[in-house]
Structure formats: C-alpha cells, structure tokens
Specification:
- By secondary structure, the chain is an all-alpha fold.
- It folds into two domains: about 250 residues, Rhopdopsin 7-helix transmembrane proteins, CATH 1.20.1070; about 70 residues, no CATH class.
- It is built from 13 helices and two strands, in the order H-H-H-H-E-E-H-H-H-H-H-H-H-H-H.
- The chain has a two-stranded antiparallel ribbon.
- Helix 3 packs parallel to helix 5 and helix 5 packs antiparallel against helix 6.
- The longest helix is centred in the N-terminal third of the chain and has 37 residues.
- The chain is elongated.
Length: about 350
Amino acid sequence: MDPNTTPGLSPPAGVEPNFVDPYSLQPQRIAVSIVGFVVLALSVIIRVYARVRLGKFNIDDWVFLLAGASFATIIALLIVAGAYGDGTHQWNVTVAELKKVLFFHNLIEIVYAVTMVTIKYVILRQIQSIFFPHDHSPLASRTILLLIWANILLYTSLGLSIVLQCVPREKIWNTEIEGTCINTNVSITVVTALNVISDISISVIPVVSIWKLRLSSMKKLKASAVFAVGIFAIVASIIRLYYGLQLFYTNDVTWAASPMGQWSIVEFITGFLVACFPYVPYVFETLLGRREKTPSMPASWHGGGSHNPTKPRNPRIRVERSWKTLKGQEEESQGISYKVTVLMQESDEMAASHSNHGYIT
C-alpha cells in the first residue's frame, strides 16, 4: 500500500478520491487567521505601549506576551495543517498527508491549552486590578482566584492528556505502529464544556461590578459594552463545543475537526480584545497629545499599595477637593469609578459624579 496514493478514509459509495484539487475550508481559515494576526498585533502594541508608558509593566504583561506568542503559533500551525489536508474530506487526503495532519492536530491542542490558560489569567487579573484592587469584596476576589486556579488545573490537565495521548507518542499520527492510546475526544469535549462556563463567569463579573456604580444607565451600558465583548467568546466556545461533539459520530476527522480551529481563533481574538480595550482610550489620548508622558492616576489603577489616590493632573478632569479626604472603602470605590471613567473617555462629568456619589455596595 502506497501511503502517497491511498486515501486516509474509504470514500462513500459512488465517490472518487480527489487528491488534486478537493474542496477545502482552507480559504476561510486563512481569512480568519489574517484577522487574528491583525488583532493580535494591535492588542500587543496597545497594551504593551500603555503599560510601559505608565511604568507598570509587570508579570501579568509577560504572561500576556506568552499568550500572544502561543496564539501566533496556533494560527501558523492551523494554516500548515490546512495545507496538508485539514479542512478537506478525509477520503481526499492521502495516508501520508493524514499522518501530518494528525501530528499538527496534536501540537495545536497542546498550544491551545497554553494560550487559553495564559490569556484567561491576564483577563482575570485585569478584572481584579480594576474592580477589586484592595480586596474590598472578599467574595469577588475569591471567585477570581478560584477561576484562575481552576483554569490552570483545567488546561494543565488537557495539555497532559494530549501529550500523553499515546505510548509511544508516534502512534498519535501513525496508527500502523504498536502501542496504546486514550480517547482524547472525551477530555477535549469536557474541557470545552467547562470552558463555556468559565467564559460566562469571566464576562459576568465586571458587568455586575459596573452596574453597582452610581452612574447613569447610559454610562453603565457604555462601560459594560467593553467587557460584554466577551459574549463573542462564549458564542465561539459553544460553537466549538458543537463541532467537538461531531467527532463522536464520524471518522471524517480532517473535515469535522477543521471548524474547531477557526472558532478557536475567534475565541482568542475576543480574549485579546478584552485584554487591551481598557488601554485604548489612554493610547489614543497620548498619541493625540492630550496626556502627559507620566500620567498621574489613582494608585489603585497602577496596582500600587497606597489607598490615597492622587488628583489627576490632566486639566480636563475636575475633581472636587473633598475627593482627597475620602477614606477606606470610599477611596477604593473612587479608584474603581475613576478607571471606568478613563475607560469611557468622559472624564470631566464622570469624575465629578464619582466625587459626589462613589460606589454602592
């Protein structure tokens, strides 16, 4: 049997294998990948530029860069896998090509676990630093910590199950050799289902926090919209779960599994947008010359330990004198409200509103 001329799956009755120009989902994958690369590049530039300029580049940002490198790797691996036949009916893929596709599938799932755990860590830490910088809400802080550790354990388990899928590992893509394997479809499906729950939790926490602020409904909607973009991640993960379930009912792996790659890219695009959105107003104002090089913001925005936020030096922001004398939880809530103000770019009116009303618990 020549692996270069033998189809990877017996075709349906009346269908002839097409190894020359079969229909493929590769064009759609390339289009989504281009969008993914553009969003990744912009999000990295915006977040890193802002964090460095603010003088607050820390471990969270290194994790963010690791997530970015992993995401870029996934996109590259998906495109290469598509070139070998991923996204094509398996009877139109030779046995030799199928081995390469299965090899890349395994690598993609491993890097997927790394990308997901890192970008979710960054988003959860971002939510914590904006809304709960000094643990004024123990329940919320514990929930975030629980989600961080749950994601670490979840995706570490997934990664290990993929790495140890077969003994020896070569049997993952070369079914002709002797060895033993586990069915990773089960673990991937379970993790994908739990991923949906995780995405919902991450989207709900900031929105609930925003709606506790004493702001107009319109301002709450604007601020919530920044984090509600996570809804797209929820939709993408649900669709990815749907296609994952199809693998239990077909042997046409190269065709059935392909959409999972595209929807993974969509899910990651959403994650990187959420990770950079809070810095977009700051970067634009800086580039337009509306901000000083070293901005003066509340300590809680910078992640500092002080509970006494300093008055912003931006002349467009008018903060009442009484704002300086606030203590305890009121000070923390001022910092939170101020961050939402910066996020929405409505500094004048919002700062005055925060000084008078603060945070509702």
